[in-house]
Design goal:
Blueprint lengths: L16 H8 L35 E3 L2 E2 L2 E2 L11 E4 L11 H16 L6 E5 L5 E6 L12 E3 H4 L10 H4 L12 H16 L11 E4 L5 E3 L40 H10 L4 H11 L3 H9 L5 H19 L2
Antiparallel strand pairs: 1-4, 2-3, 4-6, 5-6, 7-8, 8-9
Helix pairs in contact: 2-8, 5-6, 5-7, 8-9
Length: 321
C-alpha cells in the first residue's frame, strides 16, 4: 500500500493535498529529489557538536520549492526555507534515521496534538533516504523570527566536550522561563520523549520562538526520534529534577522512570492536578495507535521491530507504578 510521504495517509503515492499545502504552499513536489547529498554537503551551515545522535547527524539548508522540485542550491539573497538531513554517519541501522525522525514527528503531531515542525520523508536521486523539515523560524513573508535554544536561554556554561547540553541543567530548570500554557505542553513532550525512546532531547533541542506579538514562546518540537534504534543511551537526556535523581545514584543503579515522576515535575511547575490528570489520560490507551503508525512508516522491518519493543517496554514501565 502507498502512503503519503508527509502524514502517512493511506492510498497516496506522493503527497496528499493537505501536506502539499503545509509543506510546499500547494506545489506538487516530487518526493524523489533530483540531487544527492554531495550536492549540498559543501555548503552546510555548521555542524552540531558533541557525542550524540545530533552530533553525527549532519544537516543541509535549501531554499524554496521551485516547480516540482526542491533545489539544493540557494540563490543569492534567498532565505533557507527547508532543512534536509541524510542518513546517520554511524551507529546501528543508520539508513533508518530519516524514517525514524519522520514517523516520530508524525506520532507526536497526529496522536498527541504536540506542535511540531512540518516534515516529510524523501529520497535522494540515488535512492538513499532523507528527512526534510520546513523551517518554522521564518514567517510567511520569509522574514527571520527570533529563536533561542535553551542552552542559551538558561545560560548553560560550555565545556570542552559539548557535554553542557546534558549536564549543565535539568528539565526542572525550564520552569523559570516557560509560560503557564507552555509548561503543560512541555510535560507532554517529556512524557512523549520517554515513551518513544528519545534519549537525546538535550538543551539545544528545545527553543523559544518569537510570536507575531513579539512574545517568546515554546517553539514547535523538532529533532524527535527513537534514539534507542541507533544507540544505547539514557532513557531521557537530562535529569528531571534539580536533585539529579539519575546521576546521584550509586554506580550500577539505574533510575526507573514512571508516570509519578512526570506528575511530580508537573507539580513543581505549578500545574494543577486537573491538568496533570488530563495529560495522563491523553497517553493512556494510545499504544495501539502508535504501533499502527510505526507499522505503516518507511522504517525497515528490523527498525520497526526495535521501535515497537521500545514503546511496549516504556508503556509498561510508565503505567505500572
Amino acid at each position: 500500500m502507498d502512503y503519503c510521504f508527509g502524514c502517512l495517509k493511506e492510498n497516496v503515492k506522493e503527497f496528499c493535498s493537505s501536506c502539499e499545502k503545509r509543506l510546499f504552499d500547494r506545489s506538487k513536489i516530487n518526493p524523489q529529489l533530483n540531487f544527492n547529498w554531495e550536492a549540498i554537503s559543501k555548503v552546510i551551515d555548521g555542524y552540531p557538536a558533541g557525542f550524540s545522535i545530533s552530533g553525527v547527524q549532519t544537516k543541509g539548508f535549501i531554499g524554496k520549492a521551485t516547480g516540482t522540485e526542491l533545489s539544493p542550491i540557494l540563490a543569492d539573497g534567498e532565505s533557507s526555507m527547508y532543512i534536509i538531513k541524510p542518513l546517520l554517519s554511524r551507529f546501528d541501522l543508520p539508513s533508518d534515521s530519516p524514517a525514524n525522525e519522520h514517523v516520530t514527528m508524525q506520532i507526536a503531531k497526529q496522536i498527541y496534538g504536540i506542535r511540531t515542525a512540518e516534515c516529510c520523508f524523501m529520497k535522494f536521486a540515488n535512492g538513499t533516504p532523507a528527512y526534510v523539515t520546513r523551517r518554522f523560524d521564518y514567517n510567511k513573508d520569509e522574514e527571520k523570527l527570533n529563536q533561542e535554544d535553551f542552552a542559551s536561554v538558561l545560560q548553560a556554561k560550555k565545556d570542552n566536550g559539548g557535554r553542557y547540553k546534558y549536564l549543565a541543567k535539568t528539565y526542572e530548570d525550564f520552569k523559570d522561563v516557560l509560560s503557564a500554557l507552555n509548561k503543560v505542553q512541555f510535560i507532554k513532550i517529556l512524557i512523549f520523549n520517554f515513551l518513544t525512546g528519545n534519549g537525546d532531547a538535550h538543551l539545544k533541542n528545545f527553543s523559544l520562538l518569537e510570536t507575531p506579538d513579539g512574545d517568546m514562546q515554546l517553539s514547535p518540537s523538532y529533532d524527535l526520534m527513537n534514539t534507542k534504534i541507533h544507540v544505547k543511551n539514557s532513557p531521557i537526556a537530562l535529569n528531571l529534577f534539580r536533585e539529579l535523581e539519575r546521576t546521584s545514584l550509586p554506580r550500577g543503579q539505574v533510575y526507573s522512570y514512571a508516570m509519578k515522576d512526570f506528575i511530580e515535575l508537573g507539580k513543581r511547575f505549578g500545574i494543577s492536578d486537573r491538568l496533570l490528570n488530563k495529560i495522563v489520560k491523553e497517553f493512556e490507551g494510545t499504544e495501539d495507535k502508535m504501533k499502527e503508525m510505526i507499522n505503516k512508516s518507511f522504517l525497515s522491518d528490523e527498525a520497526k521491530k526495535k521501535y515497537l519493543e521500545t514503546i511496549e517496554k516504556n508503556f509498561l514501565q510508565l503505567f505500572s507504578k
